[in-house]
Amino acid sequence: MHLYKPTAPGMATITKTEICTASKKAAGFVRHIEFDVSGTDLAGKCIPGQSIGVIPPGVDANGKPHKLRLYSLASPSAGEDGKGTILATTVKRTIDEHHDHHRLFLGVCSNYLCDLQPGDKIQITGPAGKKFVLPANAQDHDYVFFATGTGIAPFRGMIIDLLKENPAAKIALIMGSPYSSDLLYDGFFRELGRKHPNFRYLPAISREPNGTHGRLYVQDRLRTDSDVLMPMLAGPRTLVYICGIAGMELGILAQIATQLSGAEREQYLRTDPPAADVKTWDRSMLHKSIHLSRRIFMEVYS
Ligand code: NAP
How far, in Å, is the centroid of ligand 1 from the Cα of 160? Predict the structure, then answer.
């Protein structure tokens, strides 16, 4: 961890940049960006679930050099090249409107990164993060991954690692997007699903019907695909990873609590007082009266 600090960042070279939404007509602009870290101490040292810091050039509104921004790695442990030297991340352009003077606001670092071309250099720090990674005994577990939007990044790398190193593990990926055109790495995950019978890819589209199911949030897949997901969750070896938009974690936990009971539910969470009605749950109760077990891993941001 922290092989490169902001005071002495490492230098990487962009090798590839491509749109990774299912359609170029998606409302947001999201890019899969690869960069070469060969010749730096980062080569072979970064694992999925960790982040890399990027320092954009220039100064902020106060004339101070920009601070670093963290981006989740999307690459597997062996990198995109199998040697740990080409890393990847998934970047959504931040495009918004200033609240007070309704002028266009472009996020500094996301737009800097998305504008870069192969051959361009970037200043990077890290890697950072040790809690949201696969366990050391990865072969002893099955995995249910819940992602929304760019929260998919760490799961791309983790799933590549798991399918390579633990061919017996059962893996389910539930991916939430507003429209099917917004799904990230959709073709890649569909192909993995065709190749690996132990991997299930379940998109959940929130603003379009999902076949006969209507509109879905990721947690709704626990109900619509309970035949696949509930036996996994009821079993003793499943880990749950949640990454993406803040708020999704409560819906997922409430749905787990609704569909599991007793010792099966307590594998993941317990409530204090024990009888707290799931319908009354809100986010302020997390970690206070809703206690999670070590089988749930969360990284959510608003
Ligand atoms: P997005 O494409 O807008 O997709 C978000 C999806 O989540 C939409 O389908 C949305 O549905 C749905 N959603 C909204 N509220 C929900 C809830 N309470 N429960 C379940 N689903 C819900 O996503 P995005 O713009 O890429 O944003 C992804 C978020 O992930 C960002 O906040 C980003 O900071 C975070 N992120 C975190 C990490 C990390 O922690 N390492 C890495 C990458 C990204 P509707 O909009 O239709 O309601």
Answer: 22
Q: 72-100 pLDDT, tens per residue?
A: 999 999 999 999 999 999 999 999 998 88
Both tokens of 73, joined, read: 């790695």
Give me the DSSP letters along 70-128: EEEB-S-TTTTTSSS-EEEEEEE--EEE-TTT--EEE-HHHHHHHH--TT-EEEEEEEE
CA–CA separation, 300 vs 248, rounded Å? 8
**Which pLDDT value is given to residue 20?**
98
Cβ 237 under 6 angstroms from ligand 1: no
CATH number belonging to domain 138-301? 3.40.50.80
Count, in order, helices (H) and strands (E) of the chain: 7, 15
Identify which of 180, 179, 183, 162 has the alpha carbon closest to the alpha carbon of residue 171.
162
Domain 10-128 of CATH type 2.40.30.10: yes
Sign of the four-CA dihedral 249, 250, 254, 255: negative
Backbone angles phi and psi of 239, in degrees to 5: -110, 145
C-alpha dist (Å) from residue 152 to 12, 18, 126, 147, 294: 23, 16, 20, 5, 21
Give, for 23, the enclosing helix (H) or strand (E).
none
Domain locations in the chain as residue ranges: 10-128, 138-301
Q: Which of 46, 245, 256 to mutate to test the pocket of ligand 1 (most atoms within 8 A of CB)?
A: 245
